[in-house]
Amino acid sequence: MTRRISRAKQGIKASGVPFSLPAASECATRLGAVLHVLYLIFNEGYASTSGPDLHRSELSAEAIRLARMVHRLLPEDGEVTGLLALMLLTDARRPARTGPDGGLVPMAEQDRSRWDAAAIAEGVALITGALPHGPTGPYQLQAAIAAIHDEAPSAEETDWPQIVALYELLFRVTSNPVVALNHAVAVAMAQGAEAGLDLLAGLDGDERITGDHRFHAVRGHLLEMAGDPAAALRCYQDAARRATSLPQQRYLQARAARLSDGD
Length: 263
What we know:
Layout (H helix, E strand, L loop, with lengths): L1 H14 L8 H23 L10 H17 L4 H14 L25 H14 L7 H14 L8 H15 L2 H15 L1 H9 L5 H4 L2 H13 L3 H14 L3 H17 L1
């Protein structure tokens, strides 16, 4: 990585390109790239894709710090505000996301009293202030979904129909298979497992998601909800084989083992 940075610096120096603010016509594109990078950094910190730990809190904290900096510079930009709100509302759940042994605790089973109330209040205030002004982008919609989760007193009291509607809006904006996957979960929670499984069937041919452990983990969860433990067991095993994070592997293996023991 050090060598890559050094080569990049040398390339910039040799190019003779001046270090200056971009033209106004370029700002929107460049801002979008900056926000996307910050989003990726935060996600890697919140749910590490590899290694022994579920979180890399230093990455999440740095992404939030940088997002605050951008927000101070562009306080009226709805997507900048939405991204900062999304980070705060998501990171607020981090203290309850792992058990004493470092294992993953799914949102439905988390002790919500351990969520960071101050971060939730700040995130809700940010997204509430941003939504009425200007066009609504993907970060704002994701922040609105996170706010609904965080404001629900319990998993059972979550406003799933509203989350379904927001995911449908988000999918129109992004056409992202992960959004489609999350939409299927929300539909299952609002309308029943079979409805969610029907939507998952529509993703079977999408190679962007079918190789991801999350696709098989979601299918396993919905099959378990639908009363098909044998099929759910196979899906959890498939998901565990595809997961690259050790805490996620252990969680999925534990789900599979529980179903196996039940047989």
